[in-house]
Amino acid sequence: MANLAKGLRAARGRFITFEGGEGAGKSTQIKLLAERLNASKIPAITTREPGGSPGAEIVRHLLLSGLAKALGAEAESLLFAAARDDHVTTVIKPALEQGKWVLCDRFTDSTRVYQGELGHVDPQLIRAMERVTIGNLKPDLTFILDVPVAVGLKRAIERRGTATADRFEGEGIEFHEKLRNAYLGIAANEPKRCVLIDANADTETVASRIWTALRDHLFSAAIAGDNSKT
Ligand code: Z5A
Question: Which of 128, 134, 163, 191 counts the most CB atoms within 10 A of its CB?
Answer without folding.
Answer: 134
